[in-house]
Write a structure and sequence with these properties.
alpha/beta, five-stranded parallel sheet
Amino acid sequence: MSEKILIINGSPRKNGNTAIVSGWVKEGAEAEGASVKIVDAARLKYKTAGCCSCYGCQVSQQFRCVILDEATDVVASFPDYDLVVFASPVYFFGLSAQIKMLMDRMFSLFKFSGGKTIHNLQKVNFALISTCGGDLHDSGVELVDETIKKITHFIGKTHKSLLIPSLVPAFEETEKKEDLKAKAMDFGKKLAKW
């Protein structure tokens, strides 16, 4: 069971398609008893854009970025959750810059020494919500999914994905799609049971 879930919304659009779908996923997970928090990555206060490769986290005893800003606290909290969900629109065939900046700071959750990798993410599962305007094969959503797959494989896990193609920027239209809402809520329920 994923009793405690963190959704990172990586869309710069506060009330866009990714936020709408993430809200439905949250609603579904909460219906199964999960506690769900959504963090808006685009509105966090950063001191640096992503990881600055200072390697301060590698000399620290903590699994935490040494740059003190809001992103540091969010990333350091990942091990406190059963499930972390990355939610990103597809921008130019990849993750949004807003989610990528936060994800790059995940480097601080790992220690690389003597050919060994140590991390504190053993109990954390990862999932993806990705929305795009194009179809599943030409938009880049598969590349976004592959990125999350690589991260989870690196830590010895698998992931679950909800890939939503063919959404237009008319958000009021997305909100009316009852079939999409049901699909997103069902995904949330499955995540809570994972």
